[in-house]
Write a structure and sequence with these properties.
By secondary structure, the chain is an all-alpha fold. It has five helices and no strands. The structure holds zinc ion.
Length: about 130
Amino acid sequence: MPGMGELDGRLLREHRTLECMTRIYCAHHHADPSGAALCADCAKLMQYARRRLEKCPYGAAKPTCARCPIHCYKPVQRETMRGVMRYAGPRMTWRHPWRALVHVFDKLRAARHPRELRAIRVARTGK
Ligand SMILES: [Zn+2]
């Protein structure tokens, strides 16, 4: 798929999950009931979400967004995405880490387990 080159591993999976949820939400709330195309607002939201993942400082090695201490969304997009997740998450019948994604939007600060901190340090520095 063109333009998908920079995302891989977990980042790509998270992006696909977000895209899927946004499609469900958009199809039920906005223009296209088939869910084939996103409306302009939802397309913009997906572009924003993709940029956030591309700029994720942890890269593909990051644990999960739910465990991430960085809340990289601006408040408006964060609220919008949270609404999308709350609606679409329970409507996804297939296995997806949507619960983990929903989780991060509900938390202002992640409580880190020392083991996680160590894992992140190792992923970053190799030490
Ligand atoms: Zn829409």
